[in-house]
Amino acid sequence: MTPLPYALPAAAAAAAGLAYLDGRYGFTYDWLALSSLVKGTVGGTRNERRDTLNLFYELESVAQSSRSNHTWIIFQGKTWTYAQAYDIVLRHGTWLKRKGVQKDEIVAIDFVNSETFVWLWFGLWSIGAKPAFVNYNLTGKSLVHTVKTSTARLVLVDQEGRDKFSEAMMKEHGFVPAEVGADQAKYEFEMDQSEVPRAVRNQAKTPLQRQLNIVFFDDALAANILTLPPTRLPDSSRAGQKRNSMAMLIYTSGTTGLPKPAIFAWGKCNASARFISSWLSLKNEVMYTSMPLYHSSASVLGVCAVLRAGATICLSKKFSHKTFWPEVRSSNATILHYVGETCRYLLSAPPSAMDKQHKIHAALGNGLRPDVWEPFKERFGIQTIHEFYAATEAPGGLFNRSANAFSAGAIARNGVFVDLLMSSKLSIVRMDPASDPPEPLRDPKTGLCELCAWNEPGELLSKLDPSNIKETFQGYFGNEKASNSKIMRNVKKTGDAYFRSGDLMRRDKEGRWWFVDRIGDTFRWKAENVSTAEVGDAVGRHAAVDEANVYGVQVPGHDGRAGCAAVVLKDSFTSATSDSQTRLPTEQTLRSLADHVKKELPAFAVPIWIRFTREMQTTGTNKQQKHLLQKDGIDPAAVEASGDILYWFNGGTYMRFTKRDLERLQGGGIKL
Predict the structure, then answer these.
(1) Listed residue (79, 36, 183, 54) closest to 129, CA to CA
(2) Nearest of 567, 599, 565 to residue 585 by alpha carbon
(3) What angle is formed at CA 329 by the lines to CA 327 and CA 332, rounded to 5 degrees?
(4) What is the model's pLDDT at position 570?
(5) CA dihedral 31, 32, 38, 44 (to 10 degrees)
(6) Domain 32-158+217-402 has CATH 2.40.10.350
(7) Could you report the per-residue pLDDT of 213-231, keeping only the tens digit for each?
């Protein structure tokens, strides 16, 4: 037997060795992700067998458990327990049935965040119907398109949205009024056959006649619904759901065109909620989100994940600097939910002695930029970032639980076990820089795609079952062309099928995955590929820059696209101007910015134009938009008409770009 004094050093050495191996190969890191994944998969299989995939059953289960009196929803200082929420949801289900809503019918919801949004959503699920979440920022053509493509005959609208559905707007887009009142409006219209699913077209005469009933919610209607009986319909009302059956419609952001309705299936809804619930150990947490519920990040990974754990979620009406931290503190939130540039906006506010006066210990979301990651954690005292990469329509996702600098800025990190699992599901393929639209490079002999090496950027693909695509990718509702455009065949072997992410990624030997750019955002200049994301990160690291959005612009007499960066400056680096609401940079700022980008970027990637703007154009989920900026291009008149000012790189610094400069470019007098 080894004497104890001699055994201690050996035990310590063994422990140190195990710690090293764990750090090197990520055993314990992988365990949490794998166990969460298994729970989601096994739970989904069990629920499908029992025909309880509908998350209404999850609410019912918690409401009738020992956690029935635990708070589920916090909104504007009011709270609702699971038992109270269950009762209210049933009353809303009663109201919806009285409105004639049938099993599997799609009903559109156009609401800002509120408790009523949740009651209607789960009220629809309680009677076996399906919600279509409408982006409350949409107006006019985009709004009408969204409602039409949902095929909903009933649209539920809150008071903030009623002006968007004015009689004049509806008439302008082909709707004929049948009845217009204070609390609802009914219209008739003919539907373009191309705008509805084939199954619906086959059942209808041509042209397809439709009626639309818009119900406007006010306090009187909300109060009336609460007087109705809380009727629970029999299980048969929700029966027959499979993992690939629609749970809801969630629309894409529409940054490159009109929004598309993505089918969010029960299997994905269950698995995603279970994974996040387990991965973050949500049971005793309070999650705070100011992100819109019409987006799957807040609705599924927020509300549904919290529901799965029997935990609490605090909803904010909309993101606002003014309400964010007061609501976080008053709700005792412990987990912060973000999307896109949310964290940058919080970081851009003046420092305060209250910055760490809260209970937040973790943040969950996607799109946290590398240049913001560590400053955000440090300033607000947040221990762990749970970054994920996913898309509403995609068959899976990637995850990074980062408590140190090792994986800061990465969209995902895998240990050796998860890496082995992912290697059979995910591939990164080389792209042909000359193709338009972008297509993968293929071996001329086999016709198969070329796989990227370590740290080489390429498009991320997710494996599908070629004989049953819709098992894991349900596509876009009523839009087979768009659905098929997301499928790539013959990738690694003849006959296989993969989902196209539309994103350029790279991965390293340490198991980290890095976002490079959106395909289409990357542009070609001077025979080189330029990543807008990487240039944006470099520009954003300058002390004067509050936010940067990089895109490619066409230049007369030049091939490819040149770099342009829309920039919001910090006030201390600007001087007032009389001819624009945008605050202009000082000469020192312009020189410093030019020196910075020359130092940080290769010559071909240096932005030739800088567009100084008051505020960045974003989607409802704080994701930067580029298409309107690209439309203005380098036309000073178009740029200045919006209140922005255009500068260009000239003589070692940035100088005002004028109409005369544009004319010289157009005439061939300037070569870049």
Answers:
(1) 54
(2) 567
(3) 105
(4) 85
(5) 180
(6) no
(7) 999 999 999 999 999 999 9
Phi-psi region of 22 (alpha: psi -120 to 50; beta: other; left: phi over 0): alpha
Alpha-carbon distance of 70 to 126, in angstroms, equals: 21
CATH level 2 (architecture), domain 523-666: 2-Layer Sandwich (3.30)
Cβ neighbours around 216 below 10 Å, total: 18
Pairing of strands 412-413, 439-440: unpaired
pLDDT band at 659 (very low <50, low <70, confident <90, very high): very high
Distances (CA, A) of 91 to 214, 223, 227, 233: 20, 11, 8, 11
130 — phi, psi (to 5°)?
A: -125, 125
* DSSP-based helix, strand, coil % in the chain, nearest 5: 40, 25, 35
Question: What φ, ψ does residue 508 adopt, rounded to 5°?
Answer: -110, 175
Give the contacts of 598 (CB within 8 A, at least 6 positions apart).
606
* Amino acid found at 447: G
From residue 249, give the alpha-carbon distance in Å to each of 135, 464, 471.
Answer: 11, 21, 17
One-character DSSP codes across 158-187: -GGGGGGG-HHHHHHTTPEEEEE-SSEEEE
CATH architecture for residues 424-518: Roll (2.30)
Residues of the chain with CATH 3.30.300.30: 523-666
CATH 3.40.50.12780 in the chain, residues? 32-158+217-402
Query: What stretch(es) of the chain map to CATH 2.30.38.10?
Result: 424-518
CA distances from 251 to 135, 344, 595 (A): 8, 25, 42
Instruction: Convert the pLDDT of each residue in 571-583 to its tens digit.
Output: 766 665 544 466 6
Convert the pLDDT of each residue in 98-143 to its tens digit: 999 999 999 999 999 999 999 999 999 999 999 999 999 888 888 9
